[in-house]
């Protein structure tokens, strides 16, 4: 081979290498794992996630494939499902729920993780800060400052005579600790005394409600928790039995008979999670992507429940509602 032929061969090889790599990359189907706590809002959120991916140009099962693992509210399954997703070597994992993310953090420190619904990710130790998360985790927090105080304000609007407020919480949940602090501050401002009640499972929920009658409770806040969603029928039944107005962050409770819900639009959070997935698939590092917070909130009022409790909802509050269930 003469010198000119050799140089031409090398040049063609150099030019062909990136083209071959690009073709291989174009033919790759990205594996996007999803570890979900489940619940009634999950499937609507997943559909919003899928729709946004289509808008971004991803054709499912061609450009990417979703590997969904739904724990259906059973926290004991998270570790097993997280390990399974890591073993399958998915490219990214989208996660719903703090306990699910804790299991994922134990399972991998390298696979990029996108939070779709996580409470207080900084306080829980999942990211270093919202602006600079560091590590392999980024995405969206499902709460913003002031939301917990808003629950107290809304209950005070519909039950102005209430002076004692029960808060059903999980004392092991860091996000609940911050919500509890904010509720206490709002209580002092609105002359309401919040009382904390541990409610991690159905038996504890029963015991909490059995004790409420002796405490002259006027209203209830149920803090977000997969167990609460899983047992919402039980909780709503107890609220009805004790004739107590209550509020929960997500609309599934209002649809089940709770008086009100106020919180972030979950479908919007899932939709925005797809944007994080897109950026990471295009080369961005989770450590460099700031954590976002909710921007869309919704108030749902169950007017049928209000009438059953003998409450008159102020017209101004009904006008502010995103949905009124009659």
Features:
disordered N terminus, 326 residues, 5-stranded parallel sheet, alpha/beta, 12 strands, 7-stranded mixed sheet, 13 helices
Task: Give the gist of this structure.
The chain has helices at 3-27, 40-55, 78-87, 98-107, 147-158, 174-190, 202-212, 226-230, 232-241, 252-256, 266-281, 303-308, 315-320; strands spanning 30-36, 64-70, 92-96, 113-118, 137-141, 164-169, 193-198, 219-222, 246-248, 260-264, 297-302, 323-325. By secondary structure, the chain is of the alpha/beta class.
Structural account:
The longest helix is centred in the first third of the chain and has 25 residues, at 3-27. The protein has 13 helices and twelve strands. The strands form two sheets. The protein has a seven-stranded mixed beta sheet. A five-stranded parallel beta sheet has the order 2-1-3-4-5, with helices on both faces. The protein is 46% helix and 19% strand. It has helices spanning 3-27, 40-55, 78-87, 98-107, 147-158, 174-190, 202-212, 226-230, 232-241, 252-256, 266-281, 303-308, 315-320, and strands at residues 30-36, 64-70, 92-96, 113-118, 137-141, 164-169, 193-198, 219-222, 246-248, 260-264, 297-302, 323-325. The termini are far apart. It is elongated. Residues 1-25 have low confidence and may be disordered. The chain has 326 residues and is α/β, with parallel strands linked by helices.
Question: Could you say which structural class the secondary elements and strand pairing correspond to?
Answer: alpha/beta
First-residue to last-residue Cα separation? 86 Å
Overall, the morphology is: elongated
Major sheet: arrangement of strands: 7-6-8-9-10-11-12
Mean pLDDT equals: 88
Model regions low in confidence, pLDDT < 50 over at least 5 residues: 1-25
Instruction: Give the number of helices.
Output: 13
Q: Helix proportion of residues, in percent?
A: 40-55%
SSE order, one letter for each helix or strand: HEHEHEHEEHEHEHEHHEHEHEHHE
β-sheet strand percentage? 15-25%
- Total beta-strand segments: 12
Radius of gyration based on Cα positions: 24 Å
Largest sheet: 7 strands, mixed
């Amino acid at each position: 081979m003469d010198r000119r032929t050799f140089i031409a061969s090398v040049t063609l090889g150099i030019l062909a290498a990136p083209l071959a790599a690009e073709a291989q990359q174009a033919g790759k189907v990205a594996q996007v794992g999803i570890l979900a706590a489940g619940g009634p809002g999950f499937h609507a959120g997943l559909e919003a996630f899928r729709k946004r991916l289509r808008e971004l140009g991803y054709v499912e099962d061609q450009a990417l494939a979703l590997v969904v693992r739904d724990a259906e509210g059973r926290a004991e399954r998270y570790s097993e499902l997280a390990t399974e997703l890591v073993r399958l070597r998915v490219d990214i994992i989208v996660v719903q729920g703090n306990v699910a993310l804790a299991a994922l953090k134990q399972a991998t420190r390298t696979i990029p993780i996108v939070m779709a619904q996580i409470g207080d990710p900084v306080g829980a130790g999942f990211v270093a800060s919202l602006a600079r998360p560091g590590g392999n985790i980024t995405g969206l927090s499902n709460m913003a400052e002031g939301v917990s105080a808003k629950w107290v304000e809304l209950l005070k609007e519909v039950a102005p005579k209430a002076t004692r407020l029960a808060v059903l919480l999980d004392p092991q949940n860091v996000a609940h600790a911050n919500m509890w602090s904010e509720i206490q501050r709002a209580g002092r401002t609105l002359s309401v005394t919040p009382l904390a009640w541990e409610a991690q499972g159905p038996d504890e929920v029963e015991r909490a409600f059995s004790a409420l009658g002796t405490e002259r409770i006027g209203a209830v806040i149920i803090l977000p928790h997969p167990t609460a969603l899983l047992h919402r029928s039980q909780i709503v039944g107890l609220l009805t039995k004790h004739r107590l107005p209550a509020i929960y962050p997500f609309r599934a409770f209002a649809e089940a008979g709770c008086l009100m819900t106020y919180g972030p639009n979950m479908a919007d959070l899932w939709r925005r999670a797809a944007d994080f997935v897109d950026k990471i698939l295009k080369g961005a590092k989770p450590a460099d992507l700031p954590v976002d917070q909710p921007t869309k909130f919704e108030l749902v009022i169950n007017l049928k429940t209000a009438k059953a409790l003998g409450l008159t909802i102020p017209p101004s509050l009904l006008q502010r509602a995103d949905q009124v269930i009659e």
